[in-house]
Amino acid sequence: MLITKVKIDGFKNLSEISFVPDTYYNIIVGANAQGKTNLLEALWIMSGCKSFRGSKERDYIALDKSRFTSEIGIYDNFRQQKITYEMIKGANITKNITINGVKQKGTRNLFDVFKCIAFIPDDVEIIKGAPEKRRNFIDMAASQLNPLFVAHITKNQAVMNQRNALLKSILQGASDSSILEIWDKQAAHEGALISYMRDGYIKKLNGVCSELYSAISGGKERLELEYKSNVFKAEDFNEPCNAAAYEKYFNKLRETEDYDIRTGITHSGVNRDEINVKINGISAKEYGSQGQIKSAALVIKLAQAEIFMERSKEAPVVFLDDVMGELDENRQRFVFDIIRNMQVFITTPNESALLPDIKGKILRMNGGRLTEEKSDE
Ligand SMILES: Nc1ncnc2c1ncn2[C@@H]1O[C@H](COP(=O)(O)OP(=O)(O)OP(=O)(O)O)[C@@H](O)[C@H]1O
Ligand SMILES: [Mg+2]
Known about the structure:
alpha/beta, 2 domains, six-stranded mixed β-sheet, binds adenosine-5'-triphosphate
């Protein structure tokens, strides 16, 4: 998958950006606070994802403007496609999105058209952060392989919101607890499916990660991911997701019902899952060194790219935000070896921190404006 054309205006500090990216390396160079990450972020949200650095939609639009517009051409195995994205500031935020000229209701279909992976300094949060960070990562990565998964996650979240609102209303005496069963049935259906999908993806990820991590650590260390479902035991996943699985999930929800009503929140199900990341058998989050945590996060992301590649026979577009400068030569080589056939957008304040053989299109970012420079090849 390739981005063949980029136009962005009014996204944060970006102004009148227009360029044709290189098929392989696009190196975005500039001093701090010039808009390098903004450029990656503007491209990234065109895949239908939220900002990778947690920016709110309202803050996407330049402070002195009332809208941003962007457009990208995408080329994949089959065809050339075009996405346009416009956001207008008003009492509310209006989003106008088209794919190949067809107006979209939301961002959902973007995910199917444009697949990308971003490596950002914050990735260490996958290891160090709260369980939610790991769940979100797994859900997003699994959704890239199977876009149907997104619908189950969205539905589950909607059902959970309804269920939690109902719990509060029961506590206040405004609703009857018998209605809970309706929501629990739906939650059981979605939740069991999500649990099985998570288990499947984590197993796949585990296989690739252990190989990559062994390579990056010179065979000295072992990385392992372990799915701790809040509902199912590891051996439950040997059976397919069937009526017995839905029932098990349903019963688990009923088990904590009294406590749920007293507190107004749901205490069981997929929103309580954990994914343990272990190095040499012990928790990376608790005991990992800085270097181990960075390497583990990097390997997990690289594994995601490899799995995606293997499955869809197509490469995702890769964004590397400021991560190369932190890696020594061996580790940089390791990364570039795995993403060798992918289109890459790299940001760096200092191009000399990159391996000398990484050559491509140099794009200079200065005050939100981009100028192209011929590489010295
Ligand atoms: N809504 C906005 N409108 C205008 N400018 C904004 C908006 N949001 C952020 N900016 C500006 O964008 C700039 C930061 O851009 P960005 O994070 O892309 O920098 P960078 O080039 O990646 O820097 P670094 O090398 O430090 O990572 C800041 O100057 C900030 O003021
Ligand atoms: Mg940056």
